[in-house]
Structure formats: structure tokens, C-alpha cells
Design a protein that fits this description.
single chain; mainly alpha; 12 helices; flat
């Protein structure tokens, strides 16, 4: 065997890091869902003994937290934007884009933070909160009102992305909206309004719904909160 051999078996193995393990875990979840993720499956993808995985992440719960953290790390907030409402729209659109790019991770984004006290969560999962508080207090809102805005925004975003990802068309080739959505399965006497709104339900546009929801949310916030003058 010559020194310049390309025999991969003779190459030194690449270093396994927490980041490389989480990257593999995210790939599994993206492709096959959360239920497909196990420490054994993760070790197979990484190409190592499971004990190597445990050195970086002690259990599956830690892996799930890490996967959610990796996605949250991509959510950027410009805390110095002079237009707080416009920046919140940017954040909302970015969050939706991340959710659509990683639909199988969305349940983790919504539920994993709730399983850990705020101060014990990964830094990447707390940073959007800190930056949005900076954005809003910098605009003149009180800390309490800034926190209220944050909670209202993310409560809306979590609900929106979960709702959008559940919009499943039963028969996409059908031109009749009732048949497309499978609404013919519902008794018309019990669900007359749902059946009547079939055209609107079939015309669901996630991006447009997000903007409409933000219009309502931000208008309501500016009308009910004490906003600083000038």
C-alpha cells in the first residue's frame, strides 16, 4: 500500500464533537422525525460506538435539547433596529422560515424550553428573549411591557407554525374544495360553517396569514400598551 493510498479505512478517524453529533441528530430528525432518533441510531450515523456519543450528550433528552438549540441559534434579532415593530416582523418571518425548513423540529422548539427552568436553558434559546427585551426597552417600553410583547409574539408564532404545518390537503388534484380538504367526511348538519368556509380553508397562504396575524397583534399592542411619546 503506497503512502498516497485513498483507502479510507487507513485514514485517521475524524474527531467527534458535540456539534458533529447534534448535526447528525438534526439530519435524522429532519429526514425521519423525532421518533426515529435514538442513541443507537445516532451512533450508527456518526459511525462510532454509542459510548462516544454519551461522552458528549448524556441521554436522548440532552440530544433533543441540543437539536432545538441548533435551530434557535439561527434566529437573529437586531436589538439596535430603531423600528421595533419592523424588527419583530423580521424575527417572525425568520422563525417561520426556520420552522418550514425543519418541520419535524417544530414540536421541540415549542416544548423543549418548557421542560427546563429559564436560567438552565441553552444560551441560544434565551438569547432571542434578551435581544427582544433590549430592542423594546431601547424603544422606550417598560421591561414588563417588553416581556408582555415577547410572550404575545412567540405565543402567536408557535400557534401559527403548528397550524400551518397541519394544513394537509387530502386530494390536491381535486378542484372542489370540499373534496380537496376531505370535508365531505364531516356531517354537514354538524359542521355547516366549516363546510361553508371550504374555499377560504383551501386557499390557505401561510405567509399571508402570518402578516395578517402580525398586523392584528402589533396594532393591538400599540393600542393597549403605554408607548413612549416621540
Amino acid at each position: 500500500m503506497t503512502e498516497d493510498s485513498t483507502d479510507g479505512a487507513r485514514r485517521p478517524p475524524s474527531t467527534v464533537t458535540r456539534e458533529s453529533v447534534l448535526t447528525a441528530a438534526l439530519m435524522i430528525v429532519d429526514r425521519d422525525g423525532v421518533d426515529a432518533l435514538s442513541m443507537r441510531r445516532l451512533a450508527e450515523v456518526v459511525g462510532r460506538d454509542p459510548m462516544v456519543i454519551y461522552r458528549h450528550l448524556p441521554n436522548k433528552a440532552a440530544v433533543l435539547d441540543g437539536v432545538a438549540e441548533m435551530v434557535f441559534e439561527q434566529l437573529m434579532v437586531d436589538a439596535d433596529d430603531p423600528d421595533w415593530a419592523a424588527q419583530l416582523r423580521v424575527v417572525a418571518r425568520s422563525f417561520r422560515a426556520l420552522a418550514l425548513a425543519h418541520p419535524n423540529v417544530v414540536p421541540l422548539l415549542v416544548t423543549r424550553p418548557l421542560s427546563t427552568p429559564l436560567g438552565m436553558r441553552p444560551i441560544a434559546m434565551v438569547r432571542p428573549l434578551e435581544n427582544i427585551l433590549r430592542l423594546l426597552t431601547g424603544a422606550g417600553f417598560s421591561g414588563a411591557d417588553a416581556l408582555h410583547i415577547y410572550r404575545a409574539l412567540f405565543g402567536f408564532l408557535y400557534g401559527h407554525v403548528l397550524n400551518e404545518l397541519q394544513e394537509v390537503i387530502e386530494r390536491p388534484e381535486e378542484s372542489d374544495e370540499v373534496l380537496r380538504l376531505g370535508l365531505h367526511r364531516l356531517p354537514i348538519t354538524e359542521f355547516p360553517l366549516v363546510r361553508e368556509l371550504a374555499p377560504a380553508l383551501a386557499a390557505y397562504d401561510g405567509a399571508a396569514e402570518l402578516e395578517r396575524g402580525l398586523d392584528i397583534l402589533l396594532t393591538g399592542l400599540t393600542a393597549t400598551l403605554t408607548y413612549p411619546a416621540g
